């Protein structure tokens, strides 16, 4: 493909991504993958160039643009060399005219920025859209951070994460034989900090209430040396089904999965009521802390969607609290930097549940900042995804 043809393809893919963002359709990665399958003639260099154009344009546009061309024109203002590719050639985009509209640029719409936690200032904005590194977590059942340093000598240790190893963005770590052998998982440092903050130990009974594909479930199994009873739950069958083969690869033999029906979670967890030593509630949220990885999420968040997330979070933290044994602990976590999903959500929980208390001092030194009854991690301050977490102890 010519450089101009690559740019035109990028514009067409951006059209589809913007439409999906407005309509609640497929995520950008899925749309990009499907577009590349439809263009099998595109070589690896073409795919890399197109992907770079697409994601650079997404990062440039603060909200869903009117068209992919409008997003790309906003990128031209940042990368002026691209203007020459609007040459009107057979497979290239039409020349730029003086009166063409451009997408608005910036981190996000002002109304969305107003929702951020007070700790997230303008000094954080650039880091929130920068390309994220690739973080690995050594699986203690089979490996160690030292092993990762030998497998990937170009990496570096992640501060405060004894199992963590950081590599440059888009490193093909999953192609390494060590991944198939279960020696490590790809996991951002924020998730590693959160898993460790649960304060697990061998012999405990542990529930991961919103397990999804099981990233944090496997981190818990690693931290407990495969010597804890772990129940991993979710209402999404497709995501939960990913966990069992991952657990087998990791050697995590004490993980049980349980698919829950929405609205029937309490009844389906009746055998765990008041029994768990630890409960992890990694609740569904806006994903505002993960814009480095999924920048199109800025285009998707609406007040209605945020309200739905808030309601789900409150429901799930209450369900999780019912599972905790007297004196046990619950860790509430969201990959969000929005106050209503973080500190405000935990304040509401503590008001609803007299006797529960918020813990302190469970993050590595220098990691996170106090945010109400919990802690906030941010890309600029902590070098990881944005994350709010709070560890809560039930009354004895």
Give an overview of the whole structure.
The chain is α/β, with parallel strands linked by helices. The chain folds into three domains: 3-106; 137-186, no CATH class; 189-393, Rossmann fold. The protein is built from 17 helices and 13 strands. Strands 5, 6, 7, 8, 9, 10, 11, 12 and 13 form a nine-stranded mixed sheet that branches. The protein has a four-stranded antiparallel sheet with strand order 2-3-1-4, with helices on both faces. Helix 1 (3-23) crosses helix 2 (28-37), helix 1 (3-23) crosses helix 3 and helix 9 crosses helix 10 (215-223). The longest helix is centred in the N-terminal third of the chain and has 21 residues, at 3-23. The protein is globular, with a radius of gyration of 22 Å.
Gist?
With 396 residues, this protein is of the alpha/beta class.
Q: In terms of topology, how is this protein built?
A:
Layout: H1 3-23, H2 28-37, H3 44-60, H4 68-78, H5 110-113, H6 125-129, E1 134-138, H7 145-151, E2 156-157, E3 164-167, H8 177-180, E4 184-186, H9 189-197, E5 205-208, H10 215-223, E6 229-234, H11 237-240, H12 243-250, E7 255-259, H13 265-268, E8 276-282, H14 297-300, H15 303-323, E9 324-334, H16 343-352, E10 357-358, E11 369-371, E12 374-377, H17 379-382, E13 387-393
